[in-house]
Design brief:
heterodimer, A: about 260 residues, alpha+beta, Ubiquitin-like (UB roll), Fumarate Reductase Iron-sulfur Protein, Chain B, domain 2, 2 domains, two-stranded antiparallel sheet, 9 helices, about 15% strand, B: about 110 residues, mainly alpha, 3 helical TM bundles of succinate and fumarate reductases, 5 helices
């Protein structure tokens, strides 16, 4: 009788050929069946350039295909693979095993997000709050009608907000935020940084509207300036600074 | 009231309280600590109206700042429409009660009710 090859025996699916290996601890949790999170350990070979995402995919390919993980671009652009790696929120595709300087790597789902399964979390709240602050230019006229000029902007005006437009909505800042951990209605650093991005844009005319949205009992004032959001951002965005600058508008220091 | 107005009051009361409490501490340093807390000394202070007025202002500033701080902490601990309303109104009532109690003490001293 012909024997069906196991996943590990499939052609082209051999593990990394490396003398080095690490212990990868993956958090396993299915809210429908499990009462608590548990960890499964795998010995994964790695090279100098191997990322944590590649190690997880290696586990899925050769050891346990049921590990749930969300990923897409593998180049820190889509913001899908955010997770807690050795206690810190990071993008799995943007974190090399060799830079962690540890023989044991623990991966867990992001904090402050409901877990779908294992490492995959629900992004609804992140997208809802992002949508709530109206993340688009608000003005009555448009540059796409004929006989109108494009909205010009000087390099200095662009400098006011450009770093905030690098946000990939990965949710790492919300995961690191201590206020998000207790306040389920808090807007969060991601949405607040995006509110600043549009408020500071010289082409935007929706400042008053946007400031009103975040001027809520669970809005901008609940930020304690822990700064952890800025520390974990993989794209160099500084949400904590954006929040302080937004407060400047609300306190009348900026116009 | 909008949260930004509440927070402006919160920051303003903190700054004003720091200044006035500094004056209060300096005035307490004019005599020994134990002597300062003696019954007659306290009554004398309350009867000196400019100083009693400053104590009343400190009481108002710290009550507003403190109870708003408590409201913020409680709102971050738990959420829910009824809970949040209860916390907000509860803090306002407690603040008014505390200010009322402190003011009553100053009035009683100055009207000879002690």
């Amino acid at each position: 009788m012909a024997q069906t090859p196991s996943l590990a025996e499939e052609s082209g699916s051999t593990p990394f050929s490396s003398s080095q290996s690490i212990t990868l601890r993956i958090a396993r949790y299915n809210p429908q069946h499990d009462s608590a999170k548990s960890f499964m350990e795998f010995q994964v070979p790695y090279e100098k350039w191997t990322t944590v995402l590649e190690a997880i995919l290696e586990v899925k390919k050769h050891f346990d295909h049921s590990v749930a993980v969300r990923y897409s671009c593998r180049q820190a652009t889509c913001g899908s693979c955010g997770m807690i790696i050795n206690g810190k929120p990071r993008l799995a595709c943007f974190t090399k095993i060799s830079e962690l300087n540890s023989n044991v790597i623990t991966v867990e789902p992001m904090n402050n997000f409901p877990i779908i399964r294992d490492l995959a979390v629900k992004f609804e709240r992140l997208f809802d709050t992002h949508h709530k602050i109206k993340p688009y230019l608000i003005r009555d006229d448009t540059e796409i009608t004929t006989n109108t000029k494009e909205f010009l902007q000087s390099p200095e005006e662009l400098e006011q907000y450009i770093q905030f437009s690098n946000c990939i909505k990965c949710g790492l800042c919300n995961s690191a935020c201590p206020t998000m951990a207790t306040d389920s209605s808090f807007v969060g650093p991601q949405a607040l940084a995006q509110a600043y991005r549009y408020v500071a844009d010289s082409r935007d005319k929706g400042k008053d509207n946007r400031l009103k949205i975040i001027d809520d009992s669970h809005g901008i004032w609940r930020c304690h300036f822990a700064g952890s959001c800025s520390q974990v951002c993989p794209k160099g965005v500084d949400p904590a600074m954006g929040i302080q600058l937004l407060r400047g508008y609300m306190l009348g220091f900026r116009s | 009231m909008r949260e930004s107005i509440i927070m402006k009051i919160h920051y303003g009361t903190a700054l004003a309280a720091v200044a006035l409490v500094a004056v209060h501490i300096l005035m307490r340093l004019t005599q020994g600590f134990a002597e300062s807390l003696e019954y007659d000394s306290v009554i004398t202070n309350y009867k000196f109206l400019p100083y009693a007025g400053m104590l009343e202002i400190i009481l108002i500033l710290l009550s507003i700042h403190g109870f708003n701080g408590l409201r913020v902490i409680l709102l971050e601990l738990k959420q829910g429409k009824t809970y949040e309303k209860a916390v907000s109104y509860g803090c306002v009532v407690a603040m008014i009660a505390l200010i009322g109690y402190g003011t009553r003490t100053i009035i009683m001293v100055n009207t000879g009710m002690t």
